[in-house]
């Protein structure tokens, strides 16, 4: 056991002196401490975000309008300014721009010049297909070079990008893309995962057939290229893998990039749509979240440089698919002149150490993963070696228990582990770390610059040292420009501002400490309430999933307003384990001892799997709905789930 708050790492004088944040503060004339700088950044957002634009010398015309005007949710940033994400991402030179690796050993890298040439070619191809400013380009792609190239080409035109991973089912993708009416679909014939090949040719044709606005479907023969031993970038047309769709032309990737063209950039207003991301869509259609060029450029420059400490020459890896916002964050490395590593494959194939081996072989300087991978590495008993260039580790996606912090500190002494929390909604983190902060087990060191994060009690008042609702009481530039097909803004308003008018409610429980550090306790809409005491689910999982017999778990409180409910613990057992009375007693005794008597479940049930979204998040709320009487088919959208078949195991016994 590692105690929450235990000091695991402190920055040396050399680390502090060389940090990008230190250099910025010196340039700014504000030497710190950090909390004072954070307070200034949220009290004077106009001055702060102007300084970010100036410090990074953003390419574009800043205009002479106000930096920020209006109140949430109706906020305008840098009125009168124009810029383009792709122009800012492609302004660097020298060395390697991007690296691609796959689980079967394929590898490719592109220099900055090669990347610019490919973007220019694909840009010319999109123009030939009729893509113009404001049009949508949809992608059904894994994390491969073509995804990055096609995105940058799309952005250069002022067109709008939207992507889904090929492990998403057809209905899930159609639910997303049909809402945005794309003009072009770019897709692969299949992908590799966990040592297996998945042919998606039929799926692509089904998707294209349900998108009547398509002018063209562009096929990338990814599987064919890998089978032939050639890099996917050089793969030929894929006619042999296609059949004609009802509308639009069908061409191969080589046909798209066949002709040279100028690398030009359409400068657009600050809030012009850059890409469309989606909520997890556990009920109803996924929300199409639109982010703007300017907000993403400023936010990712700030976050990647000051919170991840990335600079030119760094190599940045985060394990993600194109269907998760972390892919958009990963490729933001280009903005600061760092090299993103794109990876297509499973995290644990051919061994649990797969991602750590990539970090070692590619000389990664900053390595990011979801919290479950760190815990899986701990459980697998991995011992890490190499990784000489590694200077930082990031964890996100769910709260990381103190044991995860402790394992990293033991295996990689001297390498700080920063836990970050934010969301698809803003494509960044609200809270996180810097290399100026010490690292303590289970603690997120700081609120991010420019993010006025507060904790609200049940009366809607800010509190310190108590668990409350995570809210933002001031706007950030990377908040959504809008939701697509939400003309009056009602859906956007209801998603974040329905509880506290003018204040963004994010849906997480957070405790902010006196020193500005914080702890995230899980989703507030799935938080437990026992005897009037609110409890996050993450602390349950920390205890329960430490048992070797437990592979996964889910805890649900069936209580409703004014009515005490049952506390139900569902566990998926490790191979060969059984849920004996002895194990149940040990679980309850441990929860009582390490947490409190309130944490002891009324019942423990074994289930074959824990329901998760396609991006890996546990589905606590839909299971709670099922237990309270909602039919399984109405509780969650199966196409937004990784394993919809397990939901039926949570039906009340009476059924």
Helices and strands in order, then pairings?
Layout: E1 7-9, H1 13-18, H2 20-28, H3 34-43, H4 45-55, E2 60-61, E3 68-71, E4 74-77, E5 82-83, H5 85-89, E6 96-102, E7 107-111, H6 112-128, E8 136-140, H7 145-156, E9 160-164, H8 170-180, E10 184-188, E11 190-193, E12 196-199, H9 201-209, E13 216-220, H10 222-228, E14 249-252, H11 253-256, E15 268-269, E16 273-278, E17 288-292, H12 293-307, E18 315-318, H13 325-331, E19 339-344, H14 354-361, E20 366-370, H15 371-379, E21 392-396, H16 402-411, E22 417-419, E23 421-423, E24 428-432, E25 439-440, E26 446-447, E27 453-456, E28 467-472, E29 482-483, H17 490-496, E30 504-512, E31 518-523, E32 528-530, E33 533-535, H18 538-544, E34 550-557, E35 567-573, H19 581-594, E36 603-606, H20 620-627, H21 632-635
Parallel strand pairs: 6-19, 8-9, 8-10, 10-13, 13-14, 18-19, 18-20, 20-21, 21-22, 35-36
Antiparallel strand pairs: 1-25, 2-5, 3-4, 5-15, 6-7, 11-12, 16-17, 17-29, 23-24, 24-26, 27-28, 28-30, 30-31, 32-33, 34-35
Helix pairs in contact: 3-4, 6-7, 8-9, 15-16
């Amino acid at each position: 056991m590692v105690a929450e708050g235990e000091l695991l790492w402190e920055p040396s004088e050399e680390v502090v002196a060389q940090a990008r944040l230190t250099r910025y503060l010196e340039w700014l004339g504000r030497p710190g401490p950090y909390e004072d700088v954070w307070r200034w950044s949220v009290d004077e957002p106009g001055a702060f975000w102007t300084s970010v634009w100036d410090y990074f010398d953003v390419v574009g015309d800043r205009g002479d309008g106000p930096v920020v005007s209006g109140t949430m949710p109706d906020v305008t940033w840098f009125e009168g300014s124009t810029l383009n994400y792709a122009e800012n991402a492609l302004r660097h030179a020298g060395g390697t721009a991007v690296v691609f690796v796959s689980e079967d050993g394929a590898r490719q890298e592109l220099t900055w010049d090669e990347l610019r040439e490919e973007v220019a070619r694909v840009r010319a191809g999109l123009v030939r297909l009729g893509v113009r400013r404001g049009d949508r380009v949809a992608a059904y792609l894994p994390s491969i070079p073509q995804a990055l190239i096609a995105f940058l080409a799309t952005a250069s035109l002022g067109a709008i990008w939207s992507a889904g991973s090929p492990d998403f089912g057809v209905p899930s993708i159609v639910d997303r893309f049909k809402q945005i009416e794309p003009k072009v679909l770019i897709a692969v014939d299949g992908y590799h995962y966990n040592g297996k090949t998945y042919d998606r040719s039929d799926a692509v044709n089904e998707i294209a057939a349900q998108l009547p606005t398509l002018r063209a479907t562009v096929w990338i023969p990814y599987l064919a290229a890998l089978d032939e031993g050639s890099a996917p970038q050089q793969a030929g047309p894929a006619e042999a893998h296609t059949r004609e769709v009802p509308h639009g032309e069908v061409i191969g990737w080589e046909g798209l990039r066949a002709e040279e063209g100028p690398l030009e950039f359409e400068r657009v207003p600050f809030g012009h749509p850059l890409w469309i991301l989606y909520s997890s869509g556990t009920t109803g259609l996924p929300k199409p979240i639109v982010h703007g060029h300017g907000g993403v450029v400023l936010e990712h420059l700030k976050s990647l440089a000051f919170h991840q400490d990335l600079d030119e020459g760094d190599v940045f890896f985060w394990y993600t698919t194109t269907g998760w916002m972390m892919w958009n964050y990963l490729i933001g490395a280009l903005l600061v002149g760092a090299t993103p590593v794109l990876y297509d494959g499973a995290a644990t194939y051919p061994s649990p150490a797969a991602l750590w081996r990539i970090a070692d072989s590619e000389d990664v300087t900053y390595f990011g993963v979801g919290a479950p991978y760190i815990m899986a590495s701990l459980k697998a008993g991995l011992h890490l070696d190499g990784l000489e260039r590694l200077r930082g580790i990031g964890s996100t996606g769910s709260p990381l228990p103190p044991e995860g912090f402790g394992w990293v500190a033991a295996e990689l002494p001297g390498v700080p582990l920063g836990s970050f929390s934010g969301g698809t909604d803003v494509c960044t983190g609200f809270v996180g770390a810097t290399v100026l902060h010490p690292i303590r087990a289970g603690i997120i060191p700081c609120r991010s610059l420019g993010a006025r994060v507060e904790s609200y009690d049940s009366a809607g008042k800010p509190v310190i040292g108590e668990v409350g609702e995570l809210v933002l009481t001031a706007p950030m530039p990377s908040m959504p420009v809008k939701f697509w097909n939400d003309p009056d803004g009602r859906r956007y308003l209801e998603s974040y501002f329905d509880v506290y008018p003018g204040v963004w409610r994010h849906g997480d429980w957070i405790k902010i400490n006196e020193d500005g550090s914080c702890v995230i306790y899980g989703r507030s809409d799935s938080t437990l309430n026992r005897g009037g005491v609110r409890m996050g689910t993450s602390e349950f999982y920390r205890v329960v999933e430490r048992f070797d017999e437990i592979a996964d778990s889910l805890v649900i409180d069936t209580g409703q307003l004014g009515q005490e409910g049952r506390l139900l613990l569902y566990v998926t057992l490790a191979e060969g384990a059984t849920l004996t009375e002895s194990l149940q007693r040990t679980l309850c005794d441990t929860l009582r001892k390490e947490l409190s008597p309130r944490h002891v479940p009324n019942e423990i049930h074994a289930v074959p799997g824990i329901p998760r979204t396609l991006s890996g998040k546990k589905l606590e709320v839909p299971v709670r709905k099922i237990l309270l009487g909602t039919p399984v088919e109405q509780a969650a959208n199966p196409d937004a789930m990784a394993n919809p078949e397990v939901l039926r195991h949570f039906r009340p016994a009476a059924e």
